[in-house]
Each structure stands twice: as C-alpha cells, then as structure tokens.
Amino acid sequence: MDIVIIGAGLSGLTAAATLAEAGASVQVVEADSRIGGRIQALRDPATNRSVADLGPTWVWPKYQPVVAEWLAKLGLKTFEQFNDGDAVITGYAPKPLRQPLPGQDGMARIVGGPAALIDALSRRIGAGHIRVSAPVTAILADGPDHIAVHLNSGETLVARHAIVAVPLRVAAGGLQLPWAPQSLIGAMRSTPTWMASHAKAVALYERPFWRDAGLSGRIASRLGPLVEAHDHTCAEGAPAAIFGFVGWSPERRLQGPEGLRRAILSQLVECFGEAAADPLDLVVQDWATNRWIATDFDLAGPPEHPEIGPPVLRARHLDGRLRFAVSEMSEVSPGLIEGALSAGHRAAMDLLTS
Ligand SMILES: Cc1cc2nc3c(=O)[nH]c(=O)nc-3n(C[C@H](O)[C@H](O)[C@H](O)COP(=O)(O)OP(=O)(O)OC[C@H]3O[C@@H](n4cnc5c(N)ncnc54)[C@H](O)[C@@H]3O)c2cc1C
C-alpha cells in the first residue's frame, strides 16, 4: 500500500480518487459506518435515490472554479435554488410578513445533491479501497520510510504516505500525533469546523403546495425553531421538501428532540398553512452529536466560519510523508465544499509531484 487516507469525507475521497487515477495504491479508512462525512443524503428507502441533503446543499460554480471543474470532471449537473414568490418573515413585526427575499447570485444545487460527488468519487476509488467503521487512534513514524496508522480495532496499517482528512479539532483531540509540534496542534485546535454545531431539518411532502399560494418556501425567523428555511424540492420535482436550520442550542436540542419536532411542524403550519402539518417525513440531522465531526470546542461558542489558517496546516510532516487535507485548512473557500475539493486535490498533487 502506498498511501493511507484517514477520513472518507469529500476531502479524503477527492485525494483518494486523484491518487487512484494516477495509479497509486490507496486505502481510505473511515471512523463512521458510512462515507461522506458532513455530506449526507436523505435517501428514498425503496430506490436509494438521494431526495434531500442533511448536510450541505449549495455550491456557487459561477464563482467557484474548483467546484465547476469537479462537477464537469464527474459529469454532474446543477439546477437553480427555487426562490420565486414571497418569503414568510416572523419575529420582525407583530404579525408575520410576506415579501420576496433576494436570492444569491450564482447559488446552485447539484442534481442528486452533494452526495452525488461522494457517489461519483467513491466509484472511481473502488469499494475495496474504502473501509468504514474503522476509527484511527494514532499515526506514528514507522522507521525512516513508513507511517504506521493504528486503528481502534488493534490493527495497524503501514504505508509510505498518509493524508489526514479529518476535521482539525477532531484530529487534535482524538488522534495520537506525538511527533506534532505545538504550533501545529495549536493551529488545529483553533480552527473551527464549519457547521459542526448545527442541526438541519428536512420535511418531505408529496407536492410543493406552498408554491400554489405564491410562497417561495423561504422562512426568515427570529422566533424559530427554524431561523432560516428554503424550498428543497429535488431536481426530479418529487418529493417536494423544505429544509431549515435549527436555531436552538445543541443542549436544548438534546433535551427535547420530540418537542423540537412538534415546534418545527407548528412553525411550518404557521408559515405555509395546514397542508404542512402532515409531511411524508420529518428528519432532524444534528451534527453536534457526531463525535467524528464536532468537538467540545465547536459546541462551546457561537459557530464561526474558519479564516484561511496558518501555513503549518498545509505543510508536510513526518519527513514529508504526512499531509492534512480537510476543507478548513484550504486556502480556497475554507470550510466549504470547494475547500474540501481543493484541499483533497492539492494534497494528492503535492504527494504525486514531490
Ligand atoms: C449542515 C451543514 C450545511 C452545510 N452547508 C454547506 C453549503 O451549503 N455549501 C458548502 O460549500 N458547504 C457547506 N457545508 C460544509 C461542507 O459540508 C464541508 O465543507 C465539507 O463537507 C467538508 O468535507 P471534508 O471531507 O473536508 O470534512 P468532513 O466531511 O468532516 O469529513 C471528515 C471525515 O473524517 C472522518 N473521521 C473523523 N475522525 C476520524 C478518525 N479518527 N478515523 C477515521 N475517520 C475519521 C469523519 O467521520 C468524516 O467522514 C455544510 C456543512 C453542514 C454540516
């Protein structure tokens, strides 16, 4: 084995696909029982088709050349975020307001959701080269030419190179890296993982009935529990969906998941009418409870978008045999899908050309 890649999120899989395409022998090891990391689809149980996104949704290919390049490379298409009609705005006036809210120039959705990126990359890598439910516990030098990657099963993988594609705070707190200088550990700990403390709710319906009433499906609310919501109907048109970001704190969400669901439904009814009361499905994905993504540092304060971090995050370590590759360390769009694509590709190319 030439290269072990730790983490099967978008960064790790982009690195693995790039290396596999160049003929390298790669093994991806993922702690969770599924691949994708923060990218997760809600799938139709009968067909396995992705019908909604529980993690990221939007890309801006007009302004994100790396995204545009990978979409073309993987043969994926985008479609517009629906935003025709009025938004419902609550908590800004005594009664709910109805008015259009501007969309974002260039904002797009991927047909099949960002999970289509994960599916396409993993096909390129080959299922035999990706292991799930295999948390890494330590990464050590193994003689002058190799790296030993220890799994919590007691197994050790030995390779010539390693790419650590794990959220930086998770890696700093959960992996033994005895060779790492304090400057590196400090930079990892102080880099927030984008959206790690958030929860996203998706309500599926047979039809986008709110559109009949001239509503865009958007909500902006100071009252919550959804502080922001959007039409999330998939490219095929059915099922229809609304997704929203939950404004309750991680502790409050944990204390009352059923109360949260009831409050979301009553907010949807208030904004869109009685037809919203009985969705086909209502799923709340709480990223703060995923220990492979969120740490206590992420939950301690308000969510922060990462800035471009110091060069030590993008440096080679262990005599050039180890690199990091996760969205937050990227110099391009850190924290975003574009950052993950860029970080994974950069780490792979650096390894191939050094
Ligand atoms: C709710 C939400 C909404 C978002 N919205 C957008 C959006 O609209 N547009 C956008 O551009 N971005 C958005 N983002 C950010 C985007 O999802 C991320 O930038 C991107 O998915 C990060 O990919 P990654 O591979 O770098 O990291 P991750 O997806 O975090 O992958 C890291 C992987 O490492 C694994 N791992 C952790 N510890 C170990 C271990 N010890 N051993 C082995 N594996 C381990 C994890 O399980 C995970 O699979 C959103 C994120 C969330 C959560």
Number of helices: 10
The helix fraction, in percent, is 25-40%
Order of helices and strands: EHEEEEHEEEEHEEEEEHHEHEEEHHEHEH
Could you list the spans in which at least 5 consecutive residues all have pLDDT below 50?
Answer: none
Number of domains: 2
Overall 3D shape: elongated
Question: Can you name the CATH architecture of the largest domain?
Answer: 3-Layer(bba) Sandwich
Head-to-tail CA distance between termini: 18 Å
How would you describe what is shown here?
With 354 residues, the protein is α/β, with parallel strands linked by helices. It has two domains: 1-38 and 114-195 and 293-354, FAD/NAD(P)-binding domain (3-Layer(bba) Sandwich); 40-110 and 197-288, Polyamine Oxidase, Chain A, domain 2, CATH 3.90.660.10. The chain has ten helices and 20 strands. The protein has helices spanning 10-21, 65-74, 115-125, 168-174, 182-189, 209-212, 250-255, 257-272, 296-300, 337-353; strands at residues 3-6, 26-29, 41-43, 50-53, 58-59, 78-80, 86-90, 97-99, 108-110, 130-131, 136-142, 146-151, 156-159, 161-164, 199-205, 215-221, 226-231, 240-246, 281-286, 322-324. The strands form five sheets. It has a seven-stranded mixed sheet with strand order 8-7-16-17-18-15-19. Strands 10-2-1-14-20 form a five-stranded parallel sheet, covered by helices on one side. Helix 1 (10-21) links the parallel strand 1 and strand 2. It is elongated. The two termini are 18 Å apart. Flavin-adenine dinucleotide binds at residues 6-12, 29-32, 37-39, 55-59, 135-136, 165-167, 170, 174-175, 194-195, 198, 200, 287, 292-293, 326-327, 335-337, 339-340.
